[in-house]
């Protein structure tokens, strides 16, 4: 989360584009903690795209990355954060200020265009994040789409694979 924020030059009022949820599972004395990382999952059928009244969100055909044009975005006060309401993973984010424009993970598109990996992938101390074509990830890790703390949406079809322990 910190690497993402630093890369994008955000200040202390910034929204986190990548959320790490902590889950406590089990019962005493057999407790465990798991973490689930949920950035924008660049869904095959992103609900945010159709929900945006300004056509400010699009899914790039060449790589499937969902991007937002902040110049077109009407702001949360004008549209009521329709994109955020439509997304089952709450990936579209808004600063807590009047007329804030939507922000979301774009896989560090500027880095990808330069042949580099997103900052979250590089900075993850557990090396638990990877970015690749979904078919490659499926063949490498399997096709697990749900884990405890994450429910796969058959409607939006998030581009995600998990390798649970």
Q: What does this protein structure show overall?
A:
This protein is α+β, with helices and mostly antiparallel strands. The protein has a single domain (2-141), classed as 2-Layer Sandwich (Alpha-Beta Plaits). It is built from 7 helices and 4 strands. The strands form 2 sheets. A two-stranded antiparallel ribbon has the order 1-2. The longest helix is centred in the C-terminal third of the chain and has 8 residues, at 134-141. The two termini are 22 Å apart.
CATH fold description? Alpha-Beta Plaits
Strand order of the largest sheet: 1-2
Shape: globular
User: Uncertain runs with pLDDT below 50, 5 residues or more?
Assistant: none
Question: How many structural domains?
Answer: 1
Radius of gyration: 16 Å
Distance between the termini: 22 Å
Helix content: 10-25%
Order of helices and strands: HEEHEEHHHHH
């Amino acid at each position: 989360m910190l690497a993402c924020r630093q890369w994008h030059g955000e200040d202390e009022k910034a929204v986190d584009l990548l959320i790490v949820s902590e889950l406590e599972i089990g019962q005493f004395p057999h407790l465990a903690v798991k973490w689930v990382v949920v950035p924008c999952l660049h869904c095959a059928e992103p609900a945010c795209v159709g929900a945006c009244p300004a056509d400010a969100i699009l899914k790039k055909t060449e790589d499937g990355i969902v991007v937002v044009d902040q110049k077109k975005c009407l702001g949360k006060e004008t549209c009521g954060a329709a994109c955020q309401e439509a997304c089952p993973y709450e990936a579209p984010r808004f600063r807590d200020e009047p007329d804030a424009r939507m922000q979301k993970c774009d896989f560090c598109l500027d880095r990808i265009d330069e042949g580099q990996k997103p900052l979250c992938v590089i900075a993850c101390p557990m090396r638990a994040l990877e970015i690749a074509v979904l078919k490659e990830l499926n063949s490498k890790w399997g096709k697990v789409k749900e884990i405890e703390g994450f429910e796969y949406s058959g409607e939006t079809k998030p581009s995600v694979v998990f390798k649970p322990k």
